[in-house]
Amino acid sequence: MSAPAYQVVGTRPIRHDGADKVTGRALYGADLELAGLLHGFVLRCPHAHARLRRIDTSKAEAFPGVKAVVTAADFPPSGDRMVDLGEGETPLSYIRGNVLASGKALYCGHAVAAVAAVNVHVAEEAAGLIEVDYEVLPHVTTALDAMREDAPLVHEELRTKEFGAPGSRPSNVAEHFRHEMGEVERGFAEAEVIVEREFHTSTVHQGYIEPHNATALWNNDGRVLIWCSTQGSFVVRDTTACILDLPVSQVKVTPLEIGGGFGGKIPVYLEPVAALLSKKSGRPVKIVMSRKDVFEGTGPTPGSFIRVKIGARRDGTITAAEAYLAYEAGAYPGAMVASGAMTVFAAYHLPNVRIDGFDVCVNKPSTAAYRAPGATNAAFATESVMDELAENLNVDPLDFRLKNAAREGARRADGVKYRRIGCVEVIEAMKNSEHYRSALNGPHRGRGVAIGYWFNVGLASSCTISVNEDGTVNLVEGSTDIGGTRTSVAMQAAEVLGIAAEDVHPVVADTDSVGYTAVTGGSRVTFATGWAAYEAAQDVVRQMRERAARLWDVDPDAVEAVRGQYRAGSHRATFRALAAQLNRTGGPVVGRATVNPKGAGGSFSGVICDVEVDPETGKTTILRFTSIQDAGKAIHPAYVEGQMQGGSVQGIGWALNEEYYMTAEGTMANASFLDYRIPTCYDLPMIETIIVEVPNPGHPFGVRGVGEANIVPPPAALANAIYRAAGVRMRRLPMNPAAVMEAIWAAAK
Amino acid sequence: MKWFDYAAPRSVAEAVRLLAAHPAARTLAGGTDLLVQLRSGRKETDLVVDIKRIPELNELRYDPAAGLTLGAAVPCYRIYQHAGLRLAYPALAETASLIGGTQIQGRASVGGNLCNASPSADTVPLLIALSATCHIAGPQGTRAIPVEDFCVAPGRNILTPGELLVSLHVPPPAPHSGARYLRFIPRNEMDIAVAGAGVSVTLDHGHFRSARIALAAVAPTPLLVREAGDALAGRPVSAESMGAAAELAKAAARPITDMRGTAEYRRHLCAVLTRRALEAAVAQAKGN
User: Fold this and answer.
1) Chain B residues with CB-CB distance to A742 below 8 A
2) Are B27 and B106 spatial neighbours (Cβ–Cβ below 8 Å)?
3) What number does CATH give the domain A18-25+458-595?
4) B259 — contact with chain A (CB < 8 Å)?
5) Would an 8 Å CB–CB cutoff place B251 in contact with chain A?
6) Beta-strand relationship, B133-138 and B164-170
7) By three-state DSSP, how is residue A328 classified?
8) Domain boundaries, chain B
9) Low pLDDT (below 50) residues in chain A
10) pLDDT at A1
11) Is some CB atom of chain A closer than 8 A to the CB atom of B190?
12) Domain range summary for chain A, segments of one domain joined by +
């Protein structure tokens, strides 16, 4: 079957937001100016764990230039209840407590109070006058420490949900769950080679360039207007309304441009605080985080302890696999361990599996999503063990993976049965790549490979398309654009309408102006909002056929529309020609669609990388790096490549240098981009890309979301490459020069 | 950041008067350290004295007989763009280009790097290796001291209230000499030295006539390891002699463990960097 020929899908038009971005005119939250604008500053707890005995704001309130001061006591007394803001049920007290601490501060950086003043310097100085009587409590910052019976308790009231049932004893473990399939003990008994290893990964941050920001105006009519940088304007609306005990219709959120999110701009931090400050002061209030605030006060991705055991027969067939995953949730339950457990063996067809997951609270910032959250940690463990097994079996690491690769119909231990997936095709593309077939010569050099998986989700998206008389269309959608999705969504509409991508003007609207649209996350926008655009465009085509029918006096069903060419009998008209006659044929045409599609497919990705390790310093230099990913159908290949490169670079940073370096006091020592070392362009080779296309049968164009899976394999691929270059198996992230050097010393002893 | 006053004197005398009258005043050259410290609250001041308008502090003059005069406010880019300086002191030009990125190099000065007195300052070990001296003006007149005596503790230097670093002086390079500063950073840019080694050597028919070795980030101040350089004097240029000097440098290091590296790793790096810097300096000296 040959692929359908598209006119727009698969091409590389210039992005719609390009001019604004390169000229600096794009409006970000920090740029926003409003009449009478005040500036807010958030006071944060300097201790890892402390009881708030008393907060005295009187001196700050009296400071010249200060217009309002708020603490958690200013929240409406709405009590506690379970709320669902799109990520499952969460107690309102957790969401609200993370915005402003009440009773206890649970991590260094936890917001305690906030000040609004005539400028940010006055606000900061006044915040320093707030007297907080802290009773410093013992703290715990790693999952394994927090699981000890004598560990300090982050939440005294928390009980472990053990296999779905609540426990009786106080604990930092919010949940222990298990996925089991087949007979694991028998599977290991059949194995001829078994490798079992333990892995540690550090807390890492998404590292988006733009800090969180929010501006709020509590208007005199009682409506709260918010401008902010978010991955989900409706999430901000619903969360803020919930915390402030308002109907959702009383909050309007206008999303501004985003300087990166990667999952970290889903939670709400500043919006309710700015709103409270505005209510008290009667003026709009803007709060912009510093980089330190971002590191200490927003959600990084969990640090983790993982044990993986895999057994195989001599012929390379895996007989059993077992995983133990303990992820640090941070201050509130909700570590991404569920997705870690779902992805840890997702690339393989396994008969006998047991996976235990632990969601563990610690005195660190409440974790948030980060690009395939939970999967990178898990793949680091699995793909390292797979590499060691391949070595023991004396088989090519890609052949070993191919032999056990997941295929259509394979069932994961968490119950999901795969539809058409591209795992095999990705591994074959790796094997057939010029990179993998090329020789790597020279001392202290090595090549590593790894693969990874990430889901896509569907969820709700809305879209309207208005036809202009000049034959262009305006497309209104609700998915905030963190990865070039305005263009990938517009292109799908353009394909259906038979017009150029440039003739679609996409706009990401505020929450009053577009139907409910779920968060930008789960690699869903090109898939689901793209589908909404596809359906809205079909609606436009249907209406345009009616208009043509009216013009030509034929039955609408007799009008054919093919790639923007409308015809019936001898009648012919282009989309543009019909658009010019809208007023004569009944007025404006607006197409609309809402979707909640179920057909999301997952995406597999792989990495091949060559490194050189300086044996005297332990420093790893990446010589060559190729990212391979199944895009289903690449709507805009350049953006797909960009996503693959971006995910690769973040994975490289996670692997080699990034970490929350915690002091003995439980505070973060390196809360700046100087000492939190994300890779610079000097640390990277050109990231090569190979797009694999195994169309997703659950999408009109075959789309698989590509935003996330690419970050999953890099740490494991680098660990495997470092092993071949330096002879040491690195099982702790980051694999920074000092760590590699110490491993080399240990191996020499 | 709290309010402060700002003054931009046009003469050394005026600057000294201001600094003497305001003991909490801070001098501003490029501001790449000071402004960050004021913003973060690590330093507070009621007066910032901008010294960039004082002619002596902007002087950059190289004379083959007299050596180099480097005004304390001269930004890094002027150093590596100065053709004569690049030829005479290639290691200094290279080190000035290590600090920050292009924008930072347009503001940051070597004098400020020294006055900030960070143990990890990149230019200081090289200045020490090159036998540079500090020219200081104060209420009691002027004085000159060797660079190795300037820093006294992390963030603290020898200047007393009212004193101002006016310029640095580097003697002219000797024939058959070479120098190099090498630092170790986990990334390749945008980083603070985990350890650094600045060396200078003068050769004489396959032997070391003299050498100076100084280290960064392994003691409370930049550290001159006199014994490591002295041990090379008179010895043949060889892997063995340079390895022995590197071991002496390592032995002199007194590092701490922090987020940038463990003490053990830093000591190890001292030997590696000293040896590699010596090899590079020797190669340069052989070409001169």
Assistant:
1) 262, 265
2) no
3) 3.30.365.10
4) yes
5) no
6) antiparallel
7) strand
8) 1-50+58-172, 177-287
9) 1
10) 43
11) yes
12) 18-25+458-595, 35-137+210-259+265-297, 304-456+601-748
